[in-house]
Prior knowledge:
The structure holds 2 protein chains of 2 kinds.
Chain A: H1 5-9, H2 26-37, E1 43-47, H3 51-56, E2 68-71, H4 77-93, E3 102-108, H5 109-114, H6 117-125, E4 131-136, H7 176-181, E5 187-192, H8 196-208, E6 213-218, H9 232-241, E7 247-251, E8 254-259, H10 267-271, H11 286-310
Parallel strand pairs in A: 1-2, 1-3, 3-4, 4-6, 5-6
Antiparallel strand pairs in A: 5-7, 7-8
Helix pairs in contact in A: 2-8, 4-6
Chain B: E1 12-16, H1 18-29, E2 33-36, H2 43-54, E3 61-64, H3 68-80, E4 85-86, E5 89-90, H4 91-106, E6 112-117, H5 131-134, E7 142-146, H6 149-164, E8 172-177, E9 186-190, H7 193-200, E10 217-218, H8 224-256, E11 263-266, E12 273-277, H9 279-294, E13 299-304, E14 306-308, H10 312-318, E15 324-329, H11 340-350, E16 357-362, H12 372-386, E17 395-397
Parallel strand pairs in B: 2-3, 2-4, 5-6, 6-8, 7-8, 12-13, 12-15, 15-16, 16-17
Antiparallel strand pairs in B: 1-9, 7-14, 11-13
Amino acid sequence: MAINLKELAKKDIKFTSGHRLCTGCGPAIIAKWTMLAAADYNVAMSSATCCVEISSAVFPYSSWKGVSWYHNAFENAGAVVGGIEATYKALKRKGKIDKDFKFIAMGGDGGTYDIGFQSLSGMAERGHNALYIVYDNNAYMNTGIQRSSATPKYAWTTTTYVGDAYQGKQQRRKDLVSIMAAHDIPYVAQASLGYWRDYMTKVQKALETPGPSFIAVYAPCWRGWRTETNSAVDLGRLAVQSRYWPLFEVVDGKWGMTYEPREAKPLADFLKPQGRFSHLFRPGYEHLMADFQSEVDFKWDQLQRRIASSK
Amino acid sequence: MTIAEKPVRQRKVVGLTGDGAAADAMMQINPDQVAAYPITPQTEIVERFAEYVANGEVQTEFVAVESEHSALSACCGGAAAGGRVMTCTSSQGLALMHEVLYIASGNRLPIVMPMVNRTLSAPINIHGDHSDSMGSRDAAWIQLFCADAQEIYDTTIQAVRIAEHPDVSLPVMICFDGFNVSHDMERVEMLDKEEVQEFVGDNKPAINMLDPENPITIGSLVLPPFFFEHKLSMINALEGSLKVIEEVGKEFEKLSGRAQPILETYGMEDAEVAVVALSGIGGTATWTVMKLREQGMKVGVIRPRVYRPFPGAQMAQLLKNVKAVAVVEKATSPGAAASPIFEDLATALYDQNAHPKMVNYVTGLGGRDTSSAQFTAVFERLQGIAKGGPVGPRVSYIGVRE
């Protein structure tokens, strides 16, 4: 199932240009990669209310070409895709359709980690044959950069300001990938913008795996992260290279890395370009940086222990 | 030979609760998908249907979701995928669905949902009143109200045709009282499964995500240049559905021998005073009218089977010679001028020739029974008003301690 770039270049992209996402938007690239990876299938999708949703289907236009796409509400992409898949199964059983379909749900971190958490969990527990993709840009970007449970500790957002009393978000981010792995579904993976081959391989693997699957893909939002328009892909790579966002997968309960940088880059390389972390680099705030590093180390070690115990 | 032509003893007569009647109708409809979550007093519908699934009596994909919000969301997905889908709920469940109710109608998805009326918390209480349905009256669902198990069975089958009619394409709620109707065992005449299948026919979905030749985008962002037209087309479809409800009812009457009027009436030919009441209490009001007419009182009752769209013109026609009317409701609209049906009816009569004096009663909140004696007192007051006596307060509360 290796991705062949030459072959890929010939495919119809089912997420077309003309959408209204920002210049340099990370999630827009993810949407395009997703549809490229799924180019050979009949696809029916559900979408949570999110940046990609609101910008890709402004009536009477749609960027979803050659794919059926349904946006219902913010918190129910899991339930909606489950309903589409359940009806598909019944229609197949009754002999009313003969075509094969793949089912994908997509949402941002707010619609997935927070308000859509229950709906996602229900979809996974019930075993719907569908892939849920969260493009994680670390906050409610559509409404203007408010913190979500995916927002990293100490990040500035418009609901976690940096002031004298406290500096940025005070809580750790939720480890949703581990929670989804704990559902014991057949395929769970973490991917990032900047590693297109790794991500598309994971999408194709998930689509070929019967049963529910889940991919969390890191999708930098330059606007919300207070950085340069052209930085999304670079930040996606730095997140991985600094060990903040490792690339791994959990296949039938077995944890394994899919890419590992030979040497970890300093965390500062990833955080420095982002205005939302600028306070971490001010004199007197070194302890925040140290705490951030200790969380990254803790999660990395935890992941390595899981991988070791899977062998 | 249709059941209407069969002698009674050759018909299939069974004892069913209201919930059982809904579940058995669903079984005979054999929808593509049922996504539901248990809530008292709707639970028996889900349980009974799950048994039909387990026994292979339906080919339905049963999705036992983790909440009512997901139940209706999954139904939206299923309907958008071109399936015939159903769910059922009650009270808090309907409240949790509230957001998706508007999306189901706005996306024009023909979902059918038995809805067992139970009061809304707080205080928490599992018994029947209409506060749940009334809280959803502006969601652009067709709302049908049933008084007994037979009507629930009949209406559920018709609801599929109404919802899927190309001129309608809207979701339908089949409402009936919690416990008093949902859990009471009654005589129900059933059709054969084949007859039901023939009546509901094949689903010809206008929206179908699973046609690879014609992929579609649903649920777009619709901004001011187009939003209003979307809504108006939905409003027109809801208003026009009254005609379809009537047509489907006539067709069902031919098959079953049971009339399916928009407004069930008793004594309205010559009534001087009348009561308007939905579902279960409409039955109690009808029984009271029968007794009072035996004593020579010119009283009548209207029990609307359809609440949304509101059959205002038909009600005005029936009330044109009536001097005083009481709207008795198991619901309240706190802070409003009166309860929901009173407000609808007063509005509908305002520009008509019928101008009876009107009073509003709130009764049975949280499932307290309304007795025939209480209806008798209502009729006595109406007679006083009809004779030129004082009208009194617009809203009164029946059987409540002060």
